[in-house]
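Researcher: Next sequence.
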Amino acid sequence: MPTRKIAILSGKGGVGKTTLTSNLSYVLANMLEQKTLAVDANFSTPDLSLHSGIYFTKFNIVDVLKNSIKVEKAIVPTHLNFDLLPGSLTLSSLTSFDRIKNVLSELTGSYDFILLDCPAGLGREVKNVINSVNEAIVVTNPDLPSIVNALKSLKLCRDFGVEIDCVVVNRIKSSKYELARRKVSEMLDFEKIFFVPEDKNVPKSITNKLPVVKINPFSPASREFIKIGYDLAGLEYRIKSSVFDKILSYFKF
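Model: Next structure:
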């Protein structure tokens, strides 16, 4: 199977791209046994490595893009069974992102999936990433500004000829202040939409520097993250949990 390179993007920050990237990487690597690389392509404010409990690395993606080192030297294995190409946690002087396509080409055949956590917005950095991948996932929240920016993200992907796997509407609270699912579906006008509920286990998992799907696979958000991962692999996710597991999940943390 050829390497699938998937950009995870949104038109605005704070919608949950990094959380989704971390959890999908875990699902693909551990539940579906796919060799997976997570790339922190958020060059200005990277924090994907922090979600995995990795604070300092000898090299990072900035070193690679500056042509200082080979990409293989910057990739680090994680205790979560997927590899990570970390971002730079210090301010960098990187001014060109044009080499990202060449870097990803060097990794073709080494992984089943490469997931790229994109910068927020739709600027030059994002366009360079989109121009380097085969597929994309658009992440948004159920409010009007986020949905409008998601529509812009969808258009950007189509303009670059990138296949859109799905739209993920994250942090559904079912409050009167957010757009109803029906309205969101009408506005996005996209066939495959996943709705991920607000889940208190997610911020707790981030504090613990672990994906929520590892700590509590039966929590509401975890089930949707797992479902998305299975869908990417062309499989249907069927919940296999005993009554005891379901009860136990409520008492995690």
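Model: Residues 4-249 form a domain with the Rossmann fold fold (CATH 3.40.50.300). The radius of gyration is 17 Å.
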